[in-house]
Amino acid sequence: MTERVVYSYVSLDRDAVSDLSKFAKVYTQESLEAEEVKPKAEVIICISIKPEEFQKLRSLKFIQVLSAGVDGLPWPHVPPHVMVAGNMGSNADAVAEHTWAILLSIAKKTCHYFQKVQGGDFKRDVQLRLLSGKTLAVIGMGSIGAKVAEVGKVFSMRVIGVTKSGKARTNVDEIFDAGKLGEVLPQADVLVISTPLTKHTKGMFRFENLRLLKKGCIVVNVGRAEVVDRDGLLRFLRERPDVVFATDVWWEVKPEGSWETELNKLPNFFGTPWIAGAFGTPEVYNRMVKAAINNVIKYLNGQKPDNIIDRTEYV
């Protein structure tokens, strides 16, 4: 019987290798035989992968992506017969917590007042925002969006969800399909973007619909940067200083100190450097690896893996 092979493009700890080794031979990029075993790999684990790698992966049948989003794959080069699974839900707690940390820091002006108090200034010069009774719109009601919505309900907010199907996995006051975005945006006091990046959602938020946001809206993007048209956002924030836009996801990576210099000059733009999920703490990364390994084991055991991706969303 031919030995099954799993190849990981991401680092795995001893426990992960041990768990997988019960079902297949495991190799990583650090393995001495790394290049020569690629043609035998039935399963790969990755976040992203270069298109030319698929020429080497001649036995490939299953891709397990470590991240929740699978937009890092070069989809036109993924063979149609290869099954792809995302890792949705593995970082949902962490990203939802981070979303609310950003929202509350903006609404309650904590950064502003921390700096003042550190300088000995106790003057109360800006007003806080009360979230209770306000409307929270969550765009993308997957595992992250659902948790964000649940917290909104705890804060006695009216919660609106927007999904592709017009159905929600958690209790919300109203749910709309993506075609009704123009009806939702004018209602939002707080807008959270947690939708995945697909061929349908790229550039979903642009100047023409951002301008529908009500005065004083707080927007937080923890989905993918490209869901928002960057140039349209820049124009909008310059014209609407009353709206605050915060993000943990970015359009491109540049050398240290030169990211998004135009947007970062604006007083109504805030960001954190991709720390909501795996890059924020090893604890979250380890959870994501564990979830990915368990899903690979499902596949190797002949069970249907979780989070199978519909490739027509990307190709």
Provide key terms for this protein.
single chain; 315 residues; alpha/beta; Rossmann fold; seven-stranded parallel beta sheet; five-stranded parallel beta sheet; 10 helices
What is the class of the largest domain in the CATH system? Alpha Beta
Supply the CATH superfamily name of the largest domain.
NAD(P)-binding Rossmann-like Domain
Low-confidence stretches: none
Radius of gyration: 21 Å
User: What order do the helices and strands follow?
Assistant: EHEHEEEHHEHEEHEHEHEHEH
Helix/strand-derived category reads: alpha/beta
CATH architecture of the largest domain: 3-Layer(aba) Sandwich
CATH topology of the largest domain: Rossmann fold
Average residue pLDDT: 95
Helix content: 25-40%
Strand content: 15-25%
Shape: elongated
Count of extended strands: 12
Q: How many domains, in number, for the residues?
A: 2
- Helix run count: 10
The largest pleated sheet is described as: 7 strands, parallel
Quick overview:
The chain contains ten helices and twelve strands.
How does the SSE layout of this entry go?
Blueprint lengths: L4 E4 L5 H8 L3 E4 L5 H4 L5 E4 L15 E4 L17 E3 L6 H16 L2 H9 L16 E5 L3 H12 L3 E6 L10 E4 L3 H4 L5 E4 L13 H4 L7 E4 L8 H10 L4 E4 L13 H4 L4 E3 L10 H19 L15
Parallel strand pairs: 1-2, 1-3, 3-4, 4-5, 6-7, 6-9, 7-8, 9-10, 10-11, 11-12
Helix pairs in contact: 3-5
